Amino acid sequence: MSFQTIFEIQQSMTVNNRRTVGQQVSRSGQIRTAQYLTSVPWVFTITPHNYLYYPQVRDVIQSIDNLDRQTSMVITFDTPELEWFVAYQGGASSAPTTMTLDSTPAPNATTLSITGVPSASGDIFKAGDFIMVDGYTYKVTQDVARADTISVPIHRPVIGSPTAGAAVACAENCTFNVYAEACPTYTLTPMTDGAFVNWDGPFVFRENVAP
Amino acid sequence: MSTTMTALSSANINHAEFIKMTVGDPATYYFFCNAASPISVDGMTFNGLGSLLLLGEINREVKATSVDLSVSLIGIDPSNIALLLSTDIKGSLVEVWRGFLDSDNQIITSPSQQFFKRYTGIVNSVAINEDWNEQLRSRVATCSIACTSMRKVLENRIAGLKTNQASWQFYHAGDTSMDRVAAISNTYFDFGKPPTKGGSASNPADTAQEVVDSVGAP
Questions:
Q1: 3-state SS, residue B161
Q2: Could you report the per-residue pLDDT of B97-149, keeping only the tens digit for each?
Q3: pLDDT one-digit tens code per residue, A62-71
């Protein structure tokens, strides 16, 4: 479980999916912006719960030690503790599982053409819904009305080279392949028959973008 | 001739940097870019997406300047290490472009392609830098490539044709124009006075005939 457990027993989670943008404000107060094209990787900063009972979490600690900052792990939000983060908001009866790419997107495109759309009342996607293509998860930036083939705007450039027919996962079926950019050590405070675990800082997880 | 960058007319621009290295003979090409997916432009596909760490400052001035440029690459990638250790790396051609993108992250092509060369130079030096942090238990290796602009290359280049017999005939075989240079090389010509040898005009009357004899009378 390891990193997955840290996500599930978090005290708080900071989500960073900001683009790389430069800003300048002139003396007349007018702002100009320039975006530097990047992959916009997901970065999660997880503040773990302190006072975990050491005898109960030794396996978790060991699995974290095994991964350390060296090995990536796929995180799913399809758990009772986390499903609120990626919950489907659209009009289908459940998160769509039949959708595929209708055409091969242009490199770095921010719009996907998707087919195999199930029936739905109203919008098939609401802004903020999650979709995953080729192992990379994107957020839908605008409501998308239901149609046989839909054009879905996403929050960052499409990563890699997905082709027409690639499966499109939605909502709780989306995953995040992450490295621990910061993997805190821990301090043990002895108590009866064991010790409390105090993490020395937050975990920082960065998406593994490796096309 | 000035270049109009129409992409800059927007208050919100979207851009990317592109680097091409040409190494060795026959040439091996390396392409680096900061985009999320490979970008093809002008017949080149920039796909080194996981390598580029840093592109140094490029100074643009009205007057021609000869500034250096540094390119930093991730040292974990074995292809980057191989690039630095290749015997032909020094002197390799480095070209840098900036491309402006539309709202769907495609190179703008209308009214003209917004893809502009910013720098041309050659690799002057390479280095592998290590950042060791015992406290954090981290060790990061970075491959750095120092580039020298073509202008500085030209500044340091010694070129030309010496006005002596050997050099002249190396380029122009059979041309005897410089054959007498050695004979008159130490002759002092003080115009309006008779020529002298040895750079001195102390006794012009004595030396005048010597020089005439040496050069050859008309």
A1: coil
A2: 999 998 888 899 888 899 999 888 899 888 888 888 888 888 888 888 888 88
A3: 999 999 999 9
How far apart are alpha carbons B120 and B19 in whole angstroms? 10
Distance, CA of B84 to CA of B130 (rounded, Å)? 15
Q: Is the pLDDT of residue A208 over 80?
A: yes
Q: What single letter denotes the amino acid at residue A132? A: M
In angstroms, the CA B12 to CA A23 distance is: 9
Map out the domains of chain B as residue ranges. 6-156, 165-215
For the segment B187-212, the average pLDDT, to the nearest whole number, is 60
Q: Are B104 and A109 within 8 A, CB to CB?
A: yes
Could you give the CA distance from residue B73 to residue B62 in angstroms, rounded to a whole number? 30
Residue B11 with chain A: CB contacts under 8 Å = 30-33
What's the number of CA atoms in the CB half-sphere (13 Å) around residue B182?
A: 7
- Dihedral through CA A164, CA A169, CA A174, CA A180, nearest 10? -20
Best of A108, A151, A163 to substitute, by most chain B Cβ atoms within 10 angstroms, is A108
> What is the CB-side half-sphere exposure of residue B105 using CA atoms within 13 A?
29
Q: State the best of A24, A37, A40 to mutate against chain B, taking most chain B CBs within 10 Å.
A: A37
**Tokens 């070209």, residue located:** B95
Contact B39 A160 (CB under 8 A): no
Q: Which amino acid is at A40?
A: V
Q: Which member of B11, B12, B35 has the closest CB to residue A108?
A: B35
A138: closest CA of chain B, how far (Å):
13
| pTM for the whole structure | 0.80
Q: In this complex, do A35 and B37 lie within 8 Å of one another by their Cβ atoms?
A: no
Q: Where along chain A do its domains lie?
A: 3-77+177-207, 83-173
Q: Give the CATH class of A83-173.
A: mainly beta
SS3 at position A206? strand
**Chain A residues with at least one Cβ partner in B under 8 Å:** 30-40, 69, 106-111, 156-161, 209-211
Nearest to B71 by CA among B58, B90, B52: B52
Contact A38 B101 (CB under 8 A): no
